[in-house]
Structure to design on (365 residues):
C-alpha cells in the first residue's frame, strides 16, 4: 500500500453498475440499514442522519439504505426510531434522500414493523435491546403473531385480523410516502426476528387461524405486505425484501422454506433478495464467520431467478475480492465495516488513481 486511503487493486465486478427496473446503481457495494436510534420522539430524521448517511454516500457506497424505518408508531423498536407515516417525517426524509443522492449514490429506505421486538431501550442505555420500556415510562404494548415475548421484553398482544389488515395498509402507505420523499428503492424487512419474520417462523407463530400453521398460511401476511408495497411503489423503481435463509433453530425456518418464499416473492415482482439469517430468538445467535450468508444467497438466486445480495459479516476486503471473482451474487451489503470507515466502499472500488474520489480529497491521495 502506498497510503492510508488505498487497500489494493480495485474490485472490478463490484465497481460496475447494476440496473434494476429503471434504476442504475453506480456500483455493487451497498450500505446496510443499521439503526441509529437518533430520531426525534416524533420519528423525524435529525442532523445526525444527514451527516451519517451523507458521509457514506460521499464515501462511495453505490446505494445507501436508511435504517429500519417504522410504518407506524406501534411498529417501532424504540421511541427514537425513524418513522415514515407522517407529513413531517416525509418532509425530513425528502432532505435526507437528497443528501444521499447529491454525491451520486442511490437512496434507499428499509420499511419496518418490529413486532415483539418492540418498546425497548436504545442500545446504550440500561439493558438496551433487552430492556423493556413499560407503558408508564413512554413505552407501548407490542403486537405480534402470538403472545410470546422476545427475551425480557414486554409480552406482546396477539394481533387481531383488523390489526393484520392495518399492517398491510401501513406498509403500502409507507411505500407511497417513501416515493414522495424521493427514495429510489424500498426494502421490506422480513428477517432478523421482526414482525414479518415472526409470522414466517413456526418458532414464533403459534396461530391457529389462516395466518398460522403450515408454510402457506405463515407466508400469507408477508406476501400480502410485499404485494401491497410493490403495487404502491412506482413501477420504475425496485423493491427489495430482506429475508432469512434459516433461523439457526431446530424447528425454525430452513433454507428449503426460504426457497419457497423466495420463488413466491419473485412472482410478485420483487427485484432483489437481501439475504441474511438468524436473530429470531435471544438465545440463538447466528454463527460467527465471515461470509455467513453468501452460499444461501447463491442458492436463492439459482432457484428464484432474481438478483441477490448477501449481508452479514462481510468486512474482510480479501473475502470481498474472492466473492467478486467467483460468486454469482449481484452485490454485497456491508454493515459494520461502513460504520467503522465511511470510505470503505471507495477504498475497495476505486483504482489507485483519483478518478472516483471527490475532488475535495485529492490532496490526500
Amino acid at each position: 500500500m502506498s497510503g492510508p486511503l488505498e487497500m489494493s487493486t480495485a474490485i472490478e465486478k463490484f465497481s460496475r453498475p447494476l440496473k434494476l427496473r429503471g434504476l442504475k446503481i453506480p456500483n455493487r457495494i451497498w450500505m446496510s440499514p443499521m439503526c441509529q436510534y437518533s430520531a426525534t420522539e416524533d420519528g423525524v430524521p435529525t442532523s445526525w442522519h444527514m451527516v451519517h448517511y451523507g458521509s457514506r454516500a460521499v464515501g462511495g457506497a453505490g446505494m445507501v439504505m436508511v435504517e429500519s424505518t417504522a410504518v407506524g408508531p406501534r411498529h417501532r423498536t424504540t421511541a427514537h426510531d425513524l418513522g415514515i407515516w407522517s407529513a413531517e417525517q416525509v418532509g425530513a426524509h425528502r432532505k435526507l434522500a437528497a443528501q444521499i443522492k447529491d454525491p451520486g449514490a442511490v437512496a434507499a429506505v428499509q420499511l419496518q414493523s418490529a413486532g415483539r421486538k418492540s418498546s425497548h431501550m436504545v442500545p446504550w442505555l440500561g439493558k438496551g435491546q433487552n430492556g423493556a420500556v413499560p407503558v408508564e415510562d413512554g413505552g407501548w404494548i407490542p403486537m405480534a403473531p402470538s403472545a410470546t415475548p422476545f427475551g425480557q421484553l414486554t409480552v406482546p398482544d396477539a394481533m387481531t385480523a383488523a390489526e393484520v389488515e392495518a399492517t398491510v395498509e401501513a406498509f403500502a402507505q409507507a411505500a407511497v410516502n417513501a416515493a414522495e420523499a424521493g427514495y429510489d428503492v424500498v426494502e421490506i424487512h422480513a428477517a432478523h426476528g421482526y414482525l414479518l419474520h415472526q409470522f414466517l417462523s413456526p418458532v414464533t407463530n403459534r396461530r391457529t387461524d389462516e395466518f398460522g400453521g403450515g408454510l402457506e398460511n405463515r407466508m400469507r401476511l408477508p406476501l400480502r405486505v410485499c404485494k401491497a408495497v410493490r403495487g404502491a411503489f412506482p413501477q420504475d423503481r425496485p423493491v427489495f425484501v430482506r429475508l432469512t435463509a434459516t433461523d439457526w433453530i431446530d424447528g425454525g425456518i430452513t433454507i428449503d422454506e426460504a426457497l419457497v418464499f423466495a420463488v413466491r416473492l419473485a412472482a410478485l415482482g420483487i427485484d432483489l433478495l437481501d439475504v441474511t439469517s438468524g436473530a429470531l430468538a435471544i438465545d440463538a445467535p447466528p454463527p460467527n464467520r465471515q461470509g455467513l450468508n453468501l452460499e444461501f444467497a447463491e442458492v436463492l438466486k439459482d432457484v428464484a431467478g432474481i438478483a441477490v445480495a448477501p449481508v452479514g459479516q462481510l468486512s474482510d476486503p480479501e473475502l470481498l475480492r474472492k466473492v467478486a471473482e467467483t460468486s454469482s451474487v449481484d452485490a454485497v451489503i456491508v454493515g459494520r465495516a461502513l460504520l467503522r470507515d465511511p470510505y470503505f466502499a471507495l477504498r475497495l472500488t476505486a483504482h489507485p488513481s483519483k478518478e472516483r474520489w471527490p475532488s475535495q480529497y485529492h490532496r490526500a491521495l
Remarks:
- The longest strand covers residues 63-70.
